[in-house]
Design goal:
By secondary structure, this protein is α+β, with helices and mostly antiparallel strands. It has one domain: Aromatic compound dioxygenase (Protocatechuate 3,4-Dioxygenase, subunit A). Helices cover 11% and strands 20% of the residues.
Length: 279
């Protein structure tokens, strides 16, 4: 449900500018094919919360409240040619870090959303390779930065399984200022320390802009339509924190990895500001 104007965030432009959010966005427009071949979008772990439901729909909110977000992908090959008629799946957590379709959700792991399908959907790319989803800005859960999962499927093959990451400065503002997103504790993991985001690199940093009563996140997905990648598919939830093992950790048998410690004060601000380019 779209909140009225009075509930939309105020003062965010100043925050984004102060934290250098412009530098956190990656270009969503492929380079001309004549210039160079484009790097493939990085594969990442599928995570334990994927469901192959093939829910053909653009609006995946199912009436769920939250800050409106449109997600728009342009899918092309390494020469920049658009790839039409490919299926794109999208899924992510709600404003409090909970996934539909699974139990053991929430900070206390006591909530169940089994049988629910919110914030999941599939669309086919059009002739220009474009696909879009209407959703809400995702929340966070322990050990992971803000992210959205997606797959690109050609026929019966997933040619790309990955996640994309949203600007820390914008996430910080929404999580601290919007009641639906506020939590009893501070978000513990930022883009700059999330192991999955660091390994994936710049090809999965989404560019975000403001439109009337919503944000729009865009990202170019560069895929090999003939690829047969190995999919990293962690076990389904049970005995591990939401999202599986924390990035870079190796859980002991029967043990749950400790939660990362949230940065505070100036250290937190520095971690959200992208490093300056040398030269």
């Amino acid at each position: 449900m779209t909140p009225p104007d009075s509930q939309l965030p105020l003062g965010r432009r100043g925050l984004l500018a102060a934290l250098g959010a412009a530098g956190l966005s990656a270009s969503a427009r492929p380079a001309p094919a004549a210039q160079r071949r484009l790097p493939l979008t990085a594969q990442t772990t599928e995570g334990p919360y994927y469901l192959d439901l093939a829910l053909d729909r653009r609006d995946i909110t199912e009436g769920l409240e939250g800050v409106p977000l449109d997600v728009r992908f342009t899918v092309c090959d390494t020469a920049g040619r658009p790839l039409p008629k490919l299926r794109v799946d999208l899924w992510h957590c709600d404003m409090q870090g909970r996934y539909s379709g699974f139990g053991e959700q929430g900070d206390d792991r006591a909530q169940s959303f089994e049988g629910k399908t919110f914030l999941r959907g599939s669309q086919r790319t059009d002739r220009a390779g474009i696909v879009s989803f209407g959703t809400v800005y995702p929340g966070w859960y322990a050990g992971r930065t803000t992210h959205i999962h997606f797959k690109v499927i050609n026929g019966a093959r997933a040619v790309l399984t990955s996640q994309f990451f949203l600007p820390d400065a914008l996430s910080e503002f929404l999580y601290t200022q919007m009641p639906l997103y506020q939590r009893a504790r501070m978000r513990d993991t930022l883009n700059s320390v999330d192991g999955i985001a660091l390994k994936a690199g710049g090809t999965v940093l989404g560019a975000v802009r403001e439109e009337r009563q919503r944000y729009v996140a865009t990202l170019a997905l560069v895929v090999d339509p003939a690829a047969v990648p190995v999919i990293d598919r962690p076990p389904r939830p049970g005995g591990l924190p939401p999202g599986g093992p924390f990035p870079g950790s190796t859980p002991l048998s029967g043990a749950r990895p400790p939660r990362p410690r949230a940065l505070e004060g100036s250290a937190r601000i520095r971690a959200m500001v992208p490093p300056r380019a040398e030269g």
